[in-house]
Amino acid sequence: MKARVHVMLKDGVLDPQGEAVKHALHGMGFDGVGGVRQGKVIELDLEDGTGEDAVREMCEKLLANTVIESYSIEMA
Amino acid sequence: MKARVHVMLKDGVLDPQGEAVKHALHGMGFDGVGGVRQGKVIELDLEDGTGEDAVREMCEKLLANTVIESYSIEMA
Asked: Gene Ontology cellular component (chains A, B) (predicted)?
């Protein structure tokens, strides 16, 4: 059983990594790029029977800083 | 128009961040976690008409180090 967690900075929180990527892309001639946001993706291999609730608890306690980051969980 | 790019270390490339997350989760009592891999997700706002080919070029040239990283693109 697998879970994929996306952790992104919340809207309104400055994202210097994303800004750096945007400027680099513009410098390389990719002018069609507007905003860029960069986040983390964490892929977890889970024992069968581990539910989304457990993954949510991992996010709240460790994987995301919920003051400035939001997360989403996909179970597969 | 939006694109989401996932960049992950290739299988077989050591992922110290993922290992650190795994050990932390075990230390917190989440014993049902097997492997953990951590990667990047980059969300791009694109002008209409910017195709997947352009995003692929951005990946090859800037967003991913294709020696050790693989990437996948979702257009939305």
From this structure: cytoplasm
Q: Which residue of B has its CA nearest to A24?
A: B62
Q: Where are the domains of chain B?
A: 2-75
Q: What is the ipTM of this complex?
A: 0.91
B44 to chain A nearest CA, in Å?
5
Q: Are A49 and B30 a contacting pair at CB < 8 A?
A: no
For residue A36, give the nearest of B72, B67, B40, B17 by alpha carbon: B40
Interchain proximity A6–B34, CB inside 8 Å = no
**CB < 8 Å to B61, chain A:** 28
- Ramachandran assignment for A11, one of left (phi > 0), alpha (psi -120 to 50 degrees), beta (any other): beta
Residue A19 above 90 pLDDT?
yes
Q: Topology of domain B2-75, per CATH?
A: Mth169; Chain: A , (3.30.1280)
Using one digit for the tens of pLDDT, what is the confidence trace for B15-52? 999 999 999 999 999 999 999 999 999 999 999 989 99
Residue in chain A lying closest to B40 (CA): A40
* Contact criterion met (CB < 8 Å) for A44 and B63: no
pLDDT value for B24: 98
Q: What is the mean pLDDT of chain B?
A: 96
